[in-house]
Known about the structure:
Elements: H1 12-25, H2 29-32, H3 60-72
Amino acid sequence: MLNFLKLNGSNYHTWSDNIMSTLQARLLWLIVNGQRPTPPTPSINPPIDTTSGKPVPSSDDYKEWVRLRIEHMQ
Length: 74
């Protein structure tokens, strides 16, 4: 979770410094500034276990994708 205020129209400079630092710490800044290619977008559906054919909603990648989607795409 981000530990600073969301962008609100009056805090752009502070927010941009914070978001850039956060993305750099998570090794994502090179993707944002175009120096590395964007990874493929995960499916909104949970991954499927190839053995059982059932969804695996406990996958850490899927949980993180859902958390970020809820947090940033309201």
